[in-house]
Amino acid sequence: MLNIKAEITFIKKQKTKPYYDSSAITGLVPKLYFKTEKKQVVLSNARTIKNIYFEKSGFEICKFSSNYNSKNIHNNLNSYKIELTNFLKKRFNCLNSYIFDLTRRSNSSKGAKNNDGNRQPAERAHVDYTRDSGIKRAMDIIGQKYYRKIINSQFRIIQLNIWKPLCKTVLSSPLAFALPKSVLKKDLIATDQRFPNRIGEIYHLAYNNKQKWLWIPNMKDSEILLLKGWDSLENKKIPMCTPHTSFNLKNQNIKRNPRESIEARIFMVIKNE
Q1: Are 174 and 213 in contact (CB under 8 A)?
Q2: Which of 8, 12, 205, 208 could pair with 35 as two cysteines, CB 3.0-4.6 Å apart?
Q3: Which range marks the domain in which residue 178 is found?
Q4: How many whole angstroms separate alpha carbon 176 and alpha carbon 159?
């Protein structure tokens, strides 16, 4: 079954709005201006759950054939974008997709090289966008005029992350993610994320023992994980976001089995069904 127990890092609720300096400011490890706590949680094997698909679950594990790998990591990002665009068109029949960020991560001491600095796995339970920052970021990426046209039509805009291993098998620092329906609104803590030239806003997740957590044992580089970050359609019947974080496996050996990965942040326009 590969259901396990592991430590997840959560934010502690406080009276004032929390904030932190992003890796773009600090260089590698973000500087936090709030307290966190570690909790032991049960992580269930996501592979054993039936009838999982992104539209109803807020996540999905998909097979994905790609020529992008650790051997052409710097020179093939545009080709990877084309592969993702073709995948989204086939999987969702989306009207348009906008890949606006690609971030590589490594759990090595130096992290993975990106244009805006080196990155290690994110080790706090979080969602990349809040209700407000999702709207703002969508307008920034697709344009205010097009944004308003879409939300006043039979289409909607979804922000999703596509997470892909670059190592053959993930044997250290894998991802955990919460079932959206187990997360209460009060668990989502809006947090300012400070960059050199702007301030973003994300949700950190506060612990609640009703939360249900999942992971993907032995995830392969031939697989991708889709996670929802934001949705322009506010409907209680569909998940709004899927909190996630990296975590440490018991007795993992980073030197022998380093975790290398790439994540794509995307806005896609799909028909509202």
Answers
A1: no
A2: 12
A3: 4-271
A4: 19
Residue 78 confidence (pLDDT) above 90: no
| pTM (2 d.p.) | 0.95
Q: Enter the tokens of residue 150.
A: 């879409």
Where residue 115 falls among pLDDT bands split at 50, 70, 90? confident
Q: What is the CA radius of gyration of the chain?
A: 18
Which tens digits make up the pLDDT trace of 181-215? 999 999 999 999 999 999 999 999 999 999 999 99
CB atoms within 10 A of CB 90: 9
Give Cβ neighbours of residue 184 (< 8 Å, ≥ 6 apart).
208, 210
How many angstroms separate the CA atoms of 129 and 266, rounded? 12
pLDDT in tens, 231-248: 999 888 899 999 999 999
